[in-house]
User: What shape does this take?
Amino acid sequence: MAALRVQLKPKQMAAALQVAGLGVTPRSPLGVLPAVASDAAARKALQGTGLLDSGRDGMSAATKTALAALADPHLLLVIMANRTARPEWVETMLLTHGPGAPFVAYAGDGDHADVAILPSAAHALVLIDELAGLSHLPAVSGTPPVELDVAAFGALVAAADVVQATKLEGMLDRQNVDADITLTADALEDRLERGMEASDPRWAVDAARAVSPPVFAAAAGRAADGLVGLEAAGVVASSRGGYTLTATGTSVALSLARLIGSAGITVAASGAAGDVDAAQLGVLRSVDSIWMAAWGEVAGDDARVTVYQASATTALRLMNALLDPLSTDGPEGATPSARRRTTRTARARRGAAPVSQPAPASAPAPSRVWAETHLVPRDGLAAWAVPDGNQPSVATLDADLPVQVIEEQNDWAHIVCSNGWEAWVDRRRLVAL
Assistant: This one.
């Protein structure tokens, strides 16, 4: 099936679903559509759209399957994306009906719908890359991931705005600004207040607010607690009169002070029993880095967010993993425990985060299908950023977690989780499948 892009008015959308024999379910983004008088009227409304063929049924089976993604999506990704130089945000939905089915990109308002039928997950991945700008520029990686609460994450992006404002003032005065900027709760609260009220994605608070779940607003008024959380995470250190950024904090703040794009991705996958697994991911694209914020444990006015720096290859692998569960296993054929296991793959135990490292030349390309080759032993398994036991471990992987071994060095195994996270582990302790 070739890719196809069409623009449909509401009556044409209703006509397409009628010809395909489909009804709109509550999961559909289409809402209420106008009635179509007859099948003949429906076919007439679709003339020239490219959705009809010359067969007896008037529409190919592949086109009907694609339209089923709009009528009854089983996987839905909502992508809000922005390029920093532009004031507007673009919202695009990616939908699919089930395992092996094509994806549909959908953007619409009350007057028309822009629909692109994408034959495979690979086509959908290209669209995500285009929207989020993942591979347009090189992206360094290597900064250790940090797990924060809402207050600490808000303080982190506010600190980036303090750094940017200080540097801009220095540039106007033609002065070099020392990186050892003193951070105070009052200064961070000021930046949070500005960012909560504005919508300029050149600033980290504004961009983070746009690509994060609503709970991000709870960071306001909690900058003091946020600084304590950043100190515990090794991002800042206490100093006279406030806090200063550590080497890790400086790397993050300087990078977030040079944003060129951002995207928020909400994922909802529906199971056979009607249950829905949901996830939220924020992408902050700077001149030299891709920063990802994976949200979890949202409860009341708090949540946990893991912030990590990804290479373009790792970022694309993660996006492919968001698309892959339905295109391979599918929620209809997956048991609840299998879905939970897929979710657990994306996280290490609380207090540690999976490693995000540049992919080596021997790693599989993003288009290669991930396949588990081993399991983590029942007592869990420590993971390292590099194959060196003299370095501290950076994560503890859950028991029975499926991984793929892509490289071996002596007693070390370079593993990849199903969402693209990579690490080095003791290969002797892995359980082969």
